[in-house]
Amino acid sequence: MVPRLRGNWSPPGDKSMTHRALILSSIAEGRSHLYHALNAQDTLATASCLRSLGIKMEMGSQKIAVIGQGLCGLKEPSRILDCKNSGTSLRLLTGLLSAQKFESILTGDASLRKRPMGELVSVLTSWGASIQLSSRKTAPVKIKKPIQKPKLLKIKFSYSSAQYKSALLLAGLYLDRLPQITETFSSRDHTERLLKRMGIPPRADNLYIPGDLSSAAPILALATLLPGSNVKIQQVGLNPGRLGFVSILQKMGGHIEITKQEEDYEPWGDMVVQSARLKAIHVTPEMSMRAIDELPLVCLLATQAEGVTRVEGASSLRFKESNRLQLTYLTLKKIGAKIQVTPDGFRISGPTRLSGGKVSTQKDHRMAILFSVAQYVTSGDLKLEETRSIANSFPDFKKTLNRLCEKN
Ligand code: S3P
User: Fold this and answer.
1) Among 82, 205, 293, 364, which one carries the catalytic annotation?
2) How far is residue 177 from each of residues 91, 93, 168, 356, measured CA to CA in Å?
3) Domain edge (last residue) among 182, 208, 234
4) What is the pLDDT of residues 117-141, one digit of tens each?
5) Global pTM exceeds 0.90
C-alpha cells in the first residue's frame, strides 16, 4: 500500500522567533504574552537560562507569560547556563550576557561544545568584553567583563549568520547605537522585526508566533513525493528570509500555492501542497541562505528529481548540530543516491531508487527528521539509530505524520 498525506495541519510555533521573543520580553519592562510559542527542547533551554537569570515565566498550554525585568534587570546566575543542543540559545545569550555587569558561564551538550564561537567572541572582545573560550574556540563561554563603548560598530563576518547578527544586536541594545552588520546574503531578520515591534529598549507586548516553516518543510517534501497527497498547511511563517525551501521546491516543479497571507510584525499565512514530479535545478548561494536548515531535504528531493541538481553556498552546514554536509552526503550515498560533495555544496543525479539500511542521525534533530522522511521513499527498510533528538525542534513530528498519512 502506497501512503499519501492528506488533511489540514498547523505547524508548531517558529523556533527562531520563540527564542527571540523569550529573550526580548525578558529584558522588556513588564508582562509579555507569547501565543503559540514553540514548546520544544531548544526553546526550553533558552527559557531555563532566562529563569536562571532571574526571569519569571508562566508556561501555559496556549501562551507563555514572561515577566520582563527591563534592560538592566537580569540577575547574576548562581549556576552555569546550559544551552543543551541549541546554537541559537548559546549565540544569542552570549551577545546578551556580554553586556551585563556580572559574570556568567554558558555551555551545552557535546555537539554544541564543538560549534564555532570564535568569530562572534572576537567582535565582542574588540568591543571591550573579556570572554574566555575553550582552546578550540568553542563553549564553555566564560564572560568576565562586559563590552564598553566601542568606536567601531561596522562588522562583516566571514559568512552570513542570523545567530551572530542577533547576538550583536542584543549586545548593541546596551550601547548608544546599534551595530551595522554587513552580510553577503541577508540572513533571517526576526530579531530586527521584533525590535521594530517592541522598540528600543524593548517594551512588553503580546506576540503571536507563526508556525515554523522549517517544521513545515518535511511535510511539504513528503507530500510532494507521495502521489495523491494534498495538505493544507495553516498559519505558517512566510518571512522571505525563510522561504527559500518553498521557492526551491516550486522551481523543481513542486505544487505549492500560498493561499492566504497576513502581515503583522512577521508575515504568515496558509499554503496548499500537492504531489508533483520533480526536475533538477541549480540552487544558488542566495537561495541556499534562505533555506539553510532545509538543504538536506533539498538533497533528498533531488535524488527523486529528473536531472542533475547543484547546490551551492552550503558550507555552513558543516557547523550545525552535526556536520550536515558530510552526514547528508555519506548517508544518501550509502542508501543508493548518486551524490557528490563539492567545496560548498552537492551535486545529485536523479531519479534514483533508494534502499534501506541502518543510519546514524548523530543526534541531530533535522537529520533525524530528514531520514524519517526518507523512510517513505526507500524500497528497503531504513532504520534510524535514534529519533529522540526530534524533540529539540518538533516534538509532535511522528504524531503529525501518523495523522496526515493515509494508506491508499
Ligand atoms: C538560526 C539561524 C541559522 C539556522 C539555525 C537558527 C537562528 O543559523 O541554521 O537553525 O535562529 O538565528 P546561522 O545563523 O548560524 O546560520
Assistant:
1) 293
2) 20, 19, 11, 55
3) 208
4) 999 999 999 999 999 999 999 999 9
5) yes
